[in-house]
Amino acid sequence: MTPSTGPGGTGKVMIRLENLSKRFPGQKTDAVANLSLDIYEGEIVVLVGPSGCGKTTTMKMINRIVEPTSGRIILDGEDVTAADPDALRRRIGYVIQQVGLFPHQTIGENVATVPKLLGWDKARVSARVDELLNMVNMAPETFRDRYPKQLSGGQRQRVGVARALGANPDVMLMDEPFGAIDPITRDRLQNEFLRLQREVRKTIVFVTHDIDEALKMGDRIAILQGPSQIAQYDTPEQILTAPASDFVSDFIGRGASLKRLDLSHVSDITLTQWPTVRVGAEHAQVLDVLRRSDKGAVLVLDDAGRPRRWVGADDLDRANGRPLDQIGLPPEAVVEPHATLSDALNELITARFSVSIVVDATGVYQGVVDIDQITDAIRSMRSEAVARARKRLDATPNTRAPQPAGAATPTPDAPVTGS
Amino acid sequence: MNFVEFLINRADDMLELGLQHAAVVGVSVLLATAIGVGLGVASYRQPRSREAILAITGAFLTIPSFALFILLIGPLGLGFLPVVVALTMYGLLPIVRNTITGLREVDPSIIESALGMGMSRAQVLRQIELPLAWPVIITGVRVTTLVLLGIAAIGSIVLGPGYGDLIFTGLARVGTPVAVNLVLAGTLGVVVLAILFDVLFYVIRKLTTSEGIR
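^ inputs. structure came back:
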């Protein structure tokens, strides 16, 4: 991944914060001081940090729910620091932890809020509401006419997301959107949201205090250390493999390597091949394959290439003429390429032959993953990260001049700070 | 003549006085609601003006009604008008107080998300805050109505309309057999009106409050 484009990114700066500061009335210190940040189109940028680091204030300055004391906000190339806030906010989706659905309005009316504000006609609004509810897996005919109090927390949160997507804004702001939801539902909503994001490709600023959520959701993560400092602004991989400071390491906490396995997918690594035979093969042929390999069993595939059985030499001895798909053991630990290495590792630890079988979406055998490949993956991630970190170090002049007023980009040396 | 016979004899009177009583209270409640909700909306976000308005409308309620009616004869004369003005003044406090309470009780996260989606302050007030505060406001209006039904009877001393007429006539004839019947009839009329208004408010509240916050 090149530093300037994320997985969904075009490399275009969608939101630029320039020397943004906020001091609340009656406070002696700034809640946010001189913060600069570039946010790229189509990416989820997570602002994460301990409480009081100014992450929520920073996010709320983007749609000017909090008016900055000084600095500039540039949205899609346009300075919106002094633009009409109502018009600005209709262009920006907004989801907060408490969701803030309007309790006296039906789900349909809630979702219709922004389209109605923009003066869409009735038919268009109603079509859009149904589309949005479908998008967040809420059947319109069931939920359109219900009231928020009749929904569970997870369902309300989905409606909140649908409502924020109302007029198809380019930018979404999300303030701990899954924070008040039980862990199981949260995990499901996060996955649903990531799937949705792959379709809609919004530029999203996402605030959380939970580093694991940040690593899962973020294309890029800004770890905020205090009112004036971004401790590191980088991809999750980089933050895990090359934390810019002790503060970042502490914030990530233990188990950085294991967390990294959540970020890599089976499709990212080269699979190993295991000896296979077709289900109709002669037993002698199977024995031959076994003898030529160093494995204890062969993987029997059916005619479509899908794994059917593990068959070892002992099984053949006891077969008594039964066909291959009735002897041996059923294949376990089967994963698809989009599974994370963490999933694969989890499966292979308990699997009989210490491998995870990888199949494609139709179940056709692709190869296997073993423990060595996973340790290799960790090792190479680490050495890449070290190489990148070295390169940065070499590229940085020794004189640590204060950062120019320009926005913090993810590329330069960390930590990126407001000057 | 027992009380029931008395009521049957005076049925036409009872009905006419009842309509007058309801009219003078109804007009006063409408005025008090318009002014009271207006004052509440204007002041609920500024602590200072909020306190000031609550103090002033609270002070109105402490003026003895007898005294206020008589004081209003000078500027407004006798009859319907001074009664409406006095009742409106008495009716402000419950409505203003409930309007302010209702508006301030709206969950701030709801307002934040409304603003965050690009509603103007006025839209938030009209589409979000007032509908959510409405059950509390209408409870204030109901309390006002009950208070005013009682006070309106006193309005008879400035020749105001309503059941006060029966009560004051009874007062003038204390000691005669009809006096008790007159006062009882006036009181009963007010009580019956109170029950009818209560039913009315129950229906209005039911019809004007969203199912989602019931």
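Residues 115 and 167 of chain A are 5 Å apart (CA to CA). Confidence is low (pLDDT under 50) at residues 1-8, 399-407, 411-419 of chain A.
thumbs up if we can close this ticket
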